[in-house]
Amino acid sequence: MLEFLQTHSKEAFAVVPVVLGFFINRVFRLRPKIFYSVRHASNYVIDQPLLDAQGNILQQHQIIRTASIVSENSGLQAAKNVEYTFNWKPPIYTVFPGRAFGAEETEMGRWSLKLDSLGPGEVFGIEIMSINQDLPLISAMRSDDVPGKLINMVPQRQMPSWFNGAALALLCLGLITLLYLMALLVEWLAV
User: Fold this and answer.
1) Which residues of the chain fall below pLDDT 70?
2) Which of 118, 136, 155, 167 is the most exposed place for a label (fewest CB within 10 A)?
């Protein structure tokens, strides 16, 4: 086996740049990458009775429900015709940043909020709220090019910049060491 590798090492290593180029092209090709997450959802019990028109108490307390949906395009190209689909139209909603959007209800009662595009690195948020009723769930996000991916979002500690710099330096040192060891292996196989 070792003799085979020594004899054909040039041919074997000639394939490496082609395969490596293929994988780099797959990873870094220009396309949008969109994801969305429910950043938070809360229920607030308000100690104020719900009254009917005659002043009779219908409910002793009222419940306000809120949710925040955030999305981002982490790709290298703008996502065209981005659509957020909810189970039904939220009673109260707002978007951030404030920008033009379209909304429509489907034949099955679903509600869609549509953006013309979501640029690379752009973040878009939808805040929904209801009083004494359930909130709709977001059922899907999509664009012309790719579907949106649902991710879980959790609070994360922000590390100091010196720590991030040290971690980056160690990663670079590890990469350089790996390349050096690969060069030693190629040299050893070529002998």
Assistant:
1) 1-2, 4-6, 12, 27-29
2) 155
